[in-house]
Amino acid sequence: MIDRPMPDFADGAWDVFCDFDGTISENDMIAQIMKRFVPEAGLELMDRVNRHELTVQEGVEQMFARIPSSRFGEVRDFAVTSVRLRQGFPAFVRLCRERGWRLTVVSGGFDFFVEPALAPFRDRLDVVCNRIDASGSHLRVVWSTPCDAACEGGCGLCKPAVLRYRQRPGVRQMLVGDGVTDAKAARVADFVFARDRLRGECDRMGIPSLPFETFDDIVARLADVPRDQGVAR
Ligand SMILES: [Zn+2]
């Protein structure tokens, strides 16, 4: 059990790490692609991942391995047109910029849908995600950041490793996320904004977190801080 105090947001520098699928994007694009292109095998793979018979890495690799490379253009077009950005994301990007906080989008997803969705903000944030190799008969996943020695493995893209690689002296790390792949990164982060399943995970692990539904909630919470703390002092 980790037992960290709630931090003072007004004080000091933060690096912000934000998940994409189910967080910036309202839908999980990998799940959408699965339902559309490999509905039956995909559901079975997802069940096996949820039952911990397969790692996330194995599940995602096996799902894409069932899609012929000849259909990659179709997959890409479907994903790009299906992304819906969660309310308030532009204001959140602006707030990070104003505070001088470095914002990194860490996605277990793929550049072919993450990059087009983030193109309007690309000069104000960093992106860590994966790519697809469509040169063979079927799609092959190329993970950008494999698990490091401190992780038990199986992540695909290892979010806790990304946070560890990017630790800087005197700068705290804030995570914004929603799902199981964010839970391992939450253990590394100093503070978490969590929705959906990550909220309960943070409570169970004793990691300080606040819930959010839209990015407006996060902006309101962070923008309020100096005034609140002024009152408290
Ligand atoms: Zn890992």
From TrEMBL:
Q: Which organism is it from?
A: Alicyclobacillus macrosporangiidus
**Protein origin, superkingdom:** Bacteria
Supply the NCBIfam families for this chain: DKMTPPase-SF, HAD-SF-IB
Q: Which UniProt keywords apply?
A: Hydrolase
Q: Name one GO molecular function term.
A: phosphatase activity
The record ties this protein, via PANTHER family, to: PHOSPHORIC MONOESTER HYDROLASE, UPF0655 PROTEIN YCR015C
Annotated InterPro entries: HAD-like_hydrolase_phosphatase, HAD-like_sf, HAD_hydro_PyrdxlP_Pase-like, HAD_sf
Tell me what this protein is called: 2-hydroxy-3-keto-5-methylthiopentenyl-1-phosphate phosphatase
